[in-house]
Amino acid sequence: MFKHTVWHFSTSVIRPASKLVHPPIQIYGLEGRFATAHYSAPSKQKKLGHVEKELTCVLAVMKEPTLSGIVMNPYVKAKVKQQVLNDLLLKEKLSPLTIINFVKMLAENSQLPYTPGEISAFGKMMSAYRGEILCSVTTAQTLDEANLTELKTTLSDSSVVGGMIVSIGDKYIDMSTKTKIQKMSRIMQEVV
Protein backbone atom coordinates (compact mmCIF):
# COMPACT_ATOMS: atom_id res chain seq x y z
CA MET A 1 0.00 0.00 0.00
CA PHE A 2 2.78 2.44 0.85
CA LYS A 3 4.57 1.91 -2.49
CA HIS A 4 1.35 2.56 -4.37
CA THR A 5 0.80 5.82 -2.46
CA VAL A 6 4.35 6.99 -3.13
CA TRP A 7 3.99 6.13 -6.81
CA HIS A 8 0.68 8.00 -6.96
CA PHE A 9 2.26 11.13 -5.46
CA SER A 10 5.25 11.00 -7.77
CA THR A 11 3.11 10.78 -10.92
CA SER A 12 0.76 13.49 -9.72
CA VAL A 13 3.74 15.82 -9.40
CA ILE A 14 4.81 15.07 -12.96
CA ARG A 15 1.42 15.58 -14.61
CA PRO A 16 1.18 19.39 -14.10
CA ALA A 17 4.50 19.87 -15.92
CA SER A 18 2.91 18.50 -19.08
CA LYS A 19 0.43 21.41 -18.95
CA LEU A 20 3.23 23.98 -19.08
CA VAL A 21 3.66 25.98 -22.26
CA HIS A 22 7.08 25.02 -23.52
CA PRO A 23 9.42 27.93 -24.29
CA PRO A 24 11.09 28.19 -27.72
CA ILE A 25 14.43 27.08 -26.28
CA GLN A 26 15.40 24.81 -23.43
CA ILE A 27 17.65 26.33 -20.79
CA TYR A 28 19.17 23.83 -18.42
CA GLY A 29 19.91 24.12 -14.73
CA LEU A 30 17.95 25.54 -11.87
CA GLU A 31 17.58 28.96 -13.45
CA GLY A 32 16.22 27.39 -16.63
CA ARG A 33 13.66 25.34 -14.74
CA PHE A 34 12.31 28.37 -12.88
CA ALA A 35 12.36 30.55 -16.01
CA THR A 36 10.45 27.83 -17.91
CA ALA A 37 7.85 27.63 -15.17
CA HIS A 38 7.50 31.40 -15.20
CA TYR A 39 7.27 31.50 -19.02
CA SER A 40 4.18 29.31 -19.02
CA ALA A 41 1.65 31.54 -17.20
CA PRO A 42 2.23 34.80 -19.13
CA SER A 43 2.34 32.83 -22.37
CA LYS A 44 -1.12 31.40 -21.71
CA GLN A 45 -2.42 34.91 -20.96
CA LYS A 46 -0.57 36.50 -23.93
CA LYS A 47 1.37 38.84 -21.62
CA LEU A 48 4.96 37.77 -22.27
CA GLY A 49 6.18 41.23 -23.33
CA HIS A 50 4.53 42.89 -20.34
CA VAL A 51 6.10 40.43 -17.90
CA GLU A 52 9.51 40.81 -19.55
CA LYS A 53 9.38 44.58 -18.93
CA GLU A 54 8.34 44.02 -15.33
CA LEU A 55 11.19 41.59 -14.75
CA THR A 56 13.60 44.33 -15.81
CA CYS A 57 12.09 46.42 -13.02
CA VAL A 58 12.41 43.49 -10.57
CA LEU A 59 16.09 43.19 -11.47
CA ALA A 60 16.64 46.91 -10.81
CA VAL A 61 14.86 46.64 -7.44
CA MET A 62 16.92 43.57 -6.53
CA LYS A 63 20.15 45.52 -7.11
CA GLU A 64 19.29 48.07 -4.42
CA PRO A 65 21.85 47.60 -1.61
CA THR A 66 19.28 47.37 1.20
CA LEU A 67 17.20 44.73 -0.50
CA SER A 68 20.23 42.88 -1.80
CA GLY A 69 21.56 42.64 1.76
CA ILE A 70 18.30 41.08 2.94
CA VAL A 71 17.89 38.70 0.00
CA MET A 72 21.48 37.45 0.08
CA ASN A 73 21.53 36.95 3.85
CA PRO A 74 21.00 33.23 4.59
CA TYR A 75 19.90 34.00 8.16
CA VAL A 76 16.84 35.99 7.08
CA LYS A 77 13.81 33.74 6.80
CA ALA A 78 12.21 33.19 3.39
CA LYS A 79 8.88 34.65 4.54
CA VAL A 80 10.59 37.89 5.62
CA LYS A 81 12.46 38.12 2.30
CA GLN A 82 9.24 37.52 0.40
CA GLN A 83 7.32 40.15 2.37
CA VAL A 84 10.00 42.82 1.96
CA LEU A 85 10.26 42.15 -1.77
CA ASN A 86 6.48 42.04 -2.22
CA ASP A 87 6.13 45.42 -0.49
CA LEU A 88 8.76 47.00 -2.74
CA LEU A 89 7.28 45.50 -5.91
CA LEU A 90 3.77 46.62 -4.98
CA LYS A 91 5.12 50.17 -4.75
CA GLU A 92 6.43 49.72 -8.31
CA LYS A 93 2.86 48.74 -9.33
CA LEU A 94 3.82 45.44 -10.89
CA SER A 95 1.15 43.00 -11.97
CA PRO A 96 0.12 40.07 -9.77
CA LEU A 97 1.28 37.80 -12.58
CA THR A 98 4.87 38.85 -11.96
CA ILE A 99 4.69 39.18 -8.18
CA ILE A 100 2.80 35.98 -7.49
CA ASN A 101 4.12 33.70 -10.21
CA PHE A 102 7.74 34.77 -10.12
CA VAL A 103 8.69 36.37 -6.84
CA LYS A 104 6.50 34.21 -4.61
CA MET A 105 7.67 31.05 -6.39
CA LEU A 106 11.32 32.01 -5.92
CA ALA A 107 10.84 32.99 -2.29
CA GLU A 108 8.98 29.80 -1.40
CA ASN A 109 11.76 27.73 -2.95
CA SER A 110 14.58 29.80 -1.35
CA GLN A 111 15.78 30.90 -4.77
CA LEU A 112 15.70 34.69 -4.36
CA PRO A 113 19.51 35.01 -4.43
CA TYR A 114 19.43 33.47 -7.92
CA THR A 115 16.89 35.94 -9.29
CA PRO A 116 19.30 37.71 -11.70
CA GLY A 117 20.21 34.39 -13.34
CA GLU A 118 16.58 33.37 -13.61
CA ILE A 119 15.61 36.72 -15.15
CA SER A 120 18.53 36.33 -17.58
CA ALA A 121 17.27 32.85 -18.55
CA PHE A 122 13.78 34.28 -19.09
CA GLY A 123 15.31 37.00 -21.28
CA LYS A 124 17.04 34.37 -23.43
CA MET A 125 13.71 32.58 -23.86
CA MET A 126 12.08 35.84 -24.89
CA SER A 127 14.87 36.55 -27.39
CA ALA A 128 14.31 33.13 -28.92
CA TYR A 129 10.56 33.77 -28.93
CA ARG A 130 11.12 36.94 -30.98
CA GLY A 131 13.53 35.09 -33.30
CA GLU A 132 16.59 37.00 -32.12
CA ILE A 133 20.01 35.36 -32.20
CA LEU A 134 22.85 36.34 -29.89
CA CYS A 135 25.78 37.80 -31.76
CA SER A 136 29.12 38.87 -30.37
CA VAL A 137 31.41 41.13 -32.37
CA THR A 138 35.01 41.72 -31.32
CA THR A 139 37.08 44.36 -33.06
CA ALA A 140 40.69 45.41 -32.74
CA GLN A 141 39.69 49.06 -32.56
CA THR A 142 36.60 50.86 -31.36
CA LEU A 143 34.07 51.19 -34.17
CA ASP A 144 33.15 54.68 -35.29
CA GLU A 145 29.47 55.59 -35.65
CA ALA A 146 29.35 54.85 -39.41
CA ASN A 147 30.86 51.37 -39.01
CA LEU A 148 28.63 50.63 -36.04
CA THR A 149 25.54 51.60 -38.04
CA GLU A 150 26.68 49.45 -40.97
CA LEU A 151 27.29 46.50 -38.64
CA LYS A 152 23.82 46.85 -37.09
CA THR A 153 22.26 47.01 -40.55
CA THR A 154 24.17 43.93 -41.69
CA LEU A 155 23.24 41.96 -38.58
CA SER A 156 19.57 42.80 -38.99
CA ASP A 157 19.61 41.65 -42.66
CA SER A 158 17.02 38.91 -42.99
CA SER A 159 18.40 37.71 -46.33
CA VAL A 160 21.06 35.72 -44.46
CA VAL A 161 18.92 32.67 -43.67
CA GLY A 162 21.62 30.89 -41.71
CA GLY A 163 25.39 30.50 -41.56
CA MET A 164 27.51 33.63 -41.84
CA ILE A 165 29.15 36.12 -44.13
CA VAL A 166 32.59 37.31 -43.06
CA SER A 167 34.40 40.26 -44.55
CA ILE A 168 37.92 41.06 -43.34
CA GLY A 169 39.71 43.80 -45.23
CA ASP A 170 39.57 42.83 -48.91
CA LYS A 171 38.78 39.15 -48.12
CA TYR A 172 35.15 38.01 -48.34
CA ILE A 173 33.85 34.61 -47.20
CA ASP A 174 30.21 33.75 -47.79
CA MET A 175 29.08 30.72 -45.77
CA SER A 176 25.43 31.72 -45.63
CA THR A 177 22.71 29.15 -46.10
CA LYS A 178 21.12 31.36 -48.77
CA THR A 179 24.28 31.19 -50.92
CA LYS A 180 24.58 27.42 -50.44
CA ILE A 181 20.96 26.96 -51.56
CA GLN A 182 21.56 29.16 -54.63
CA LYS A 183 24.68 27.14 -55.57
CA MET A 184 22.82 23.84 -55.21
CA SER A 185 19.93 25.16 -57.27
CA ARG A 186 22.34 26.19 -60.07
CA ILE A 187 24.04 22.78 -59.99
CA MET A 188 20.69 20.98 -60.16
CA GLN A 189 19.56 23.18 -63.08
CA GLU A 190 22.83 22.53 -64.96
CA VAL A 191 22.38 18.77 -64.60
CA VAL A 192 18.84 18.92 -66.01
Provide a compact summary of the structure.
The protein contains nine helices and two strands.
Reconstruct the topology from this structure:
Elements: H1 2-18, H2 29-44, H3 48-62, H4 65-72, H5 78-91, H6 96-108, H7 115-130, H8 145-155, E1 163-168, E2 171-176, H9 177-191
Antiparallel strand pairs: 1-2
InterPro entries: ATP_synth_OSCP/delta_N_sf, ATPase_OSCP/dsu
Keywords: ATP synthesis, Hydrogen ion transport, Ion transport, Membrane, Transport
Family: Belongs to the ATPase delta chain family.
Describe the structure.
Helices cover 65% and strands 6% of the residues. It contains 9 helices and 2 strands, in the order H-H-H-H-H-H-H-H-E-E-H. It has helices spanning 2-18, 29-44, 48-62, 65-72, 78-91, 96-108, 115-130, 145-155, 177-191; strands at 163-168, 171-176. Helix 2 crosses helix 7 (115-130). The protein starts with a helix and ends with a helix.
Shape: elongated
Main β sheet profile: 2 strands, antiparallel
Distance between the termini: 71 Å
Q: Let me know the average pLDDT.
A: 80
Main location: membrane
Keywords: ATP synthesis, Hydrogen ion transport, Ion transport, Membrane, Transport
InterPro entries: ATP_synth_OSCP/delta_N_sf (IPR026015), ATPase_OSCP/dsu (IPR000711)
Pfam families: OSCP
